[in-house]
Each structure stands twice: as C-alpha cells, then as structure tokens.
Amino acid sequence: MSTSPETSPGTSRETSRETSRVTSSAGPASRTAERLRELRAEGRAALVGYLPLGFPDLAGSVDAAKAMVAAGVDIVEIGLPYSDPVMDGPVIQSAVERALAGGTRVRQVFGAVEEIAATGAPVLVMTYFNPVLRYGVDAFARDLAAAGGAGLITPDLIPDEAGAWIEASDRHDLDRVFLVAPSSTPERLASTAAATRGFVYAASTMGVTGERTTLGTRAAALVADTRAAGADLVCVGLGVSRPEQAADVASFADGVIVGTAFVRPLLEAQDRAAGLAALTKVAEGLAAGVRSADRTIDR
Amino acid sequence: MELDQARLRDSLATNEGPYFGEFGGRFVPEALIAALDELDLEYQKAKVDPAFTGELMRLHRTYTGRPSIVTEVPRFAQHAGGARVILKREDLNHTGSHKINNVLGQALLTKRIGKTRVIAETGAGQHGVATATAAALFDLECVIYMGEEDTRRQALNVARMRLLGAEVVPVRTGSRTLKDAINEALRDWVTNVETTNYVFGTVAGPHPFPAMVRDLQRIIGEEAREQVLDLVGRLPDVVAACVGGGSNAIGIFHAFLDDPGVRLLGLEAAGDGVDTGRHAATITAGAPGVLHGARSFLLQDEDGQTMESHSISAGLDYPGVGPEHSWLASIHRAEYRPITDAQAMDAFQVLCRTEGIIPAIESAHALAGAIEVGRELGPDAVVLVNLSGRGDKDVETAARWFDLLDDDPAEKVAEIPGEQL
C-alpha cells in the first residue's frame, strides 16, 4: 500500500491518472484480449465460464473446468474460495463454503490453472483481495504467470486501491479485470477502463451473483457507456443463466460471463458423472446461445 | 499552507480518512462507490451545517439523555490499586449504550440524502436495537441482519427490534455470526443502494464510515474531558475502553489524542486466552489485511481466510477492528491489551457488588483493564473508563457464568461451553 495519512478522498483521481499512464506503457498484448478480438473477428462474443476451485473437490473442479471448455466455453474464470464473499449470491456461497470446508488452499490454484490452461483457453482467477494480499501481491502474480494464468478478476478491489496489483500485473504481463456497475459515474467508467488490462467486467445489474429471469436494459446501456469511456473490450456478468439471455447479451457485449448457472448443476447432481453431464449440457446451451446472437443490431 | 501542514502533523485528531497511515481505504465492489461518495459528500456538508448539528444536539439532549454523567467509583477503585476511577456513563443513554450516538447521526443523514430504507448488522443486538429505534423515530423502513447463532442467543433483543417495527433477518451463511451479518448487509446494500442507506455500527468498514462514525461518537470524549477536568482538576492519566470494532473507544479516545500525557488503553477480548486461539484480540494477535472494506488488523489464517473470533461478549466478538485503531497502535499512540472472559467477568462482578452498577460485558473488559492499570500505577493515578453499555442484556449470560440459576440441571451452563450470549 502506498497510502499516506495526507492522502485525501480527492486523490483517487490522481491515482487513476497514474494507472492510465501505467496501462499505456504496458508490454505484450493481453492473452484474454487477443482471444476476445479473434472471436470478434469471427463475428461472435465469447462465453466466459466461472467455477470455484476445490468444488466438489480439487480434481473435480479441474475436471469441471475442462468439461466446460470442451462444451464451448472460451475463457475460464477460476474462483478462489474466500471466507467472506460479499459479491456472491447463495449458490456460489454454498459451493465456496464446501470448497473451504474440504480444505482448499490458495496455493492449489496455480496447479489447477496450469492444468486448465493446457486446454488452450485463457484462464483468469477471480478472487477477493485479501488472499492475494496475504500471499504477497507480487508473489501471487509471479506464480500465476508461471502457471500460465492470464490474470485476475478482483470484485472487491477498485483501481484506486490497486497500486501494488497494477505494478505486479505489469511486471508479470497479467490481465487485471476491474468491474463497472450501473451506478458507476462517467468519470469512474473512464478511470476503470484506463486501469484495466484484458477486458472490463460490466455488472449487468445492481446486486450479487445469481440467476435472474430478466436482465433489463441497464446492461446494454452500461456496455455502451463503458465503450464511450474508452474501453475496447467489455464483457457482461451477473444474472445470465439461460441461452436466450446469453444470445441477448452476446448481441452487444464482447463476452458473456456465466457463474451460478454452471455451479448449480454441480451442487445439485447426485454424483460426479451426473454433475459433469449436467454442466456440459448447460455449457452447450449457452455456447449455442452466444453463437446465435444477432450482432447486426450493434455493429 | 505550511501552517496547515504543521498543524496536521502535530494533531492526531484531524485525520479525515480514507487512510489512517497504511490502514483504511475502500476495498468494496465498484457498485458501492457511488453510494459511498454520496454519503461522504453529504456528510461533509452536514457536519458543518448548523441545521444538522443543531438537530443532532437537540436529539442528544431531549431523546438520548446527553450529556451522560460521570460517576467516580471509590469502592470499585479499591480493587484497582486505589487509583481514582471515573466512569463515563454511556450505559445511561436511551437504548442502553453508546450506539445511539452514531445511529441518530446516520439516520438524520439518511433523511437528508432522501433515502427511505435503512439496513444494519448487529451482533449482540445493541446496534440493531439502536438502529430500529432511530428508524421508528424517523419513519424509515428498517432491516437488521443478525447471524442465526446470535438471534438464538439474543432472542430478547430480536423481540425488541421487532417491537420497534424492524424486520430481523437471521443470516445462515458462514459462521452465522456478526461477520456474516455484515456480509449479508453488504449484499443487500449492493442490490438496493438506490433506496437504502447502510447504517454501519462501528468505526470499521469502507471510507467514510470509520471517520464518520468516529465523529458521531467523539461527543463521549469531549464531554468526559471537561467532566474529568471539573471533577479532578486535571486530565486523567489513562483512558480505558473496550475494543471490538472500536467505536466507543475511538469516541472517548479522540478528545485526548493530542494530550501526550494521557495514556489511551484499548482492551480487546481475549476469550479463553490469546494463546488458546479462541479469542477476538485482533490487534494483539492479528495481522494487517482487508476485511469488510478496509485495510486493518484482522484475525486471518495463512491463506488470508478470516478466522472465527470467540468472546463471552457478543459485542466484541468480531475478527476485525477499525483502521484508525490499527494506525494508533502502529504509531504507539494507543496501547491495546487482551482481557480474558474470566478477567472481564471478575471485573463485572466487582462493579455490581461495590457500586450497584451492572455493566455490559463488553464494558467489563474496560473495567478489567482499569483494575490492571490502576494496580500498576497506584493511588495517585486517575483512570477514566468508558462504561459503554449496561448489562441488562447480559443478565442471563452472567447468571450462567456465576451459576446463579436454579433451574433444571439438564439445562445447565456446563452443556454450553463457549456460550457467547
């Protein structure tokens, strides 16, 4: 933390300016961004799938992530289980609680990332900040990069507080995916877009992770506003669970992020094989949804 | 400009956040930033607006019962090395603790912002009861999140909140205690932030809560400083207060921060003992990290997972602590010591028997600290103790601890090791 007692609330803007300088001097292209642009060239959005590490157990979570990729998921998000997941709804909370109760350890994420990355899909780690802080921000970045990971999604870390992570991600060529929300001001959309490497994660709605029957119109507006604020690549998450929703989001966003809908079949399955089969079916449906999107409206 | 910087350097009491040294900040989802900015901006305006401060002072006088008195306790002091011990009587406030000071300010602010619904977390129920009280007074919809374990242990406070018109939501995730109640309240806030203000109960959480809640509690120390000067003719040698999240302690410490001769003593809950691992002594035994929106000391394992805390006092049973306390500890301006359940309950009994005052078990930790430091300093010392709450809510716990219940042996305390209210 490079904070000092003299820092006042007004300095967050200065931090943002600094972060945008850092971004513009970044080295090699982001692997995630590269994949998203390839898919854009193919005329479709990416399907980004989330699963928590260690659920139902370590090997089971790796198998599930691979199955997801085999069924059409383009980019994988591995969630690091955390004791206080304030951005997660009940389904992901129960999976994460079970992962922790099963003894899942932070350091196991690197091996898992390595195995999943072998499929060729970019693998991001979604994590609350304290486990990274505890491991050591630079050490975490180093070990994630060594494992072939693409970067981090940080739901409780805003760019204003991310000085150490921004430095470390630059040093190790990792993506840093920050979130924007329907409540974000134009100034914050701009500073977040500038600090981001990879893509900006647009929260479709105000709330936590979970399935929603309708997404409303805020997601499309937020994506447009985020692009207007300088972001090239914007993916949408929170609430997407059904193929027709995925198709809808894929018509205006660069990626459709799905979590709860992938976790639920694993939670509800009678056994491992049934869980993987159900997960595969969900992934195939969403992948088809993404591929069926009508992108003529927006592009 | 130079003058200002010199003043800032010299005064420890002017720190407005978001950072207290390396502690504090805003480690929250982006979705909450707009609401935190709005709250901060409105609060900065309100605190210099005579309409706001005047209304708050009127409520303190006519509703809470401020200024709260101080009581010198000579019979208790015989157990504290003969030092002069003076209690600041926050236990006499409406709703029975210092929590009302903060809640009235935040409820006024909620009205000012134009929001119609308040949410709050509560452990023992004191902050929940205070929030439900203010919500009734200001006609706000009120939802209180409380760990399921705590709703069971504090059934009477649940009933109190419901009598006052609040909805009480038992939280069934994680450890089902205060920490998880805060998580659930944060999830509600992210979802309903357009209509809802989060009335945070302590000096932790993201900016502006640590500075704002401190400002609203600062009245404790401002009153007490004058009262002790009147009574004794000089400043106290030690100011003692219990520290969970740390709001009553910051409230009484602040008026003395720039008095270098006054030692500030925070007493943390050591539960069964710091070396047993079953405690809530965050600064004594924790390490810096991020929890509930701020960087501060916290109880965490080697993976950065929050550890469960343990204390006989539900109000201190929290694995985090406010960032300003972490800062005051790091610059050695305040000292933090652990007090075990047994030490606290001994002090609890001494105050009951010698002075006819039943303290909250939280505040009994501060009393135990006063006994300890009084014995160290001897009869010339003056020790000011923040008696942050009254013990009505703790009668059942205390009766079990001291084995005062005559009921069915099958229901005896022995069956409930680690009972925490």
From TrEMBL, chain A:
<keyword id="KW-0456">Lyase</keyword>
<comment type="function">
    <text>The alpha subunit is responsible for the aldol cleavage of indoleglycerol phosphate to indole and glyceraldehyde 3-phosphate.</text>
</comment>
<feature type="active site" description="Proton acceptor">
    <location>
        <position position="88"/>
    </location>
</feature>
<dbReference type="InterPro" id="IPR002028">
    <property type="entry name" value="Trp_synthase_suA"/>
</dbReference>
<feature type="compositionally biased region" description="Low complexity">
    <location>
        <begin position="21"/>
        <end position="31"/>
    </location>
</feature>
<comment type="pathway">
    <text>Amino-acid biosynthesis; L-tryptophan biosynthesis; L-tryptophan from chorismate: step 5/5.</text>
</comment>
<keyword id="KW-0028">Amino-acid biosynthesis</keyword>
<dbReference type="InterPro" id="IPR013785">
    <property type="entry name" value="Aldolase_TIM"/>
</dbReference>
<feature type="compositionally biased region" description="Low complexity">
    <location>
        <begin position="1"/>
        <end position="13"/>
    </location>
</feature>
<dbReference type="GO" id="GO:0004834">
    <property type="term" value="F:tryptophan synthase activity"/>
</dbReference>
<feature type="active site" description="Proton acceptor">
    <location>
        <position position="77"/>
    </location>
</feature>
<feature type="region of interest" description="Disordered">
    <location>
        <begin position="1"/>
        <end position="33"/>
    </location>
</feature>
<keyword id="KW-0057">Aromatic amino acid biosynthesis</keyword>
<dbReference type="InterPro" id="IPR011060">
    <property type="entry name" value="RibuloseP-bd_barrel"/>
</dbReference>
<comment type="subunit">
    <text>Tetramer of two alpha and two beta chains.</text>
</comment>
<dbReference type="InterPro" id="IPR018204">
    <property type="entry name" value="Trp_synthase_alpha_AS"/>
</dbReference>
<comment type="similarity">
    <text>Belongs to the TrpA family.</text>
</comment>
<protein>
    <recommendedName>
        <fullName>Tryptophan synthase alpha chain</fullName>
        <ecNumber>4.2.1.20</ecNumber>
    </recommendedName>
</protein>
<dbReference type="Pfam" id="PF00290">
    <property type="entry name" value="Trp_syntA"/>
</dbReference>
<keyword id="KW-0822">Tryptophan biosynthesis</keyword>
<dbReference type="GO" id="GO:0005829">
    <property type="term" value="C:cytosol"/>
</dbReference>
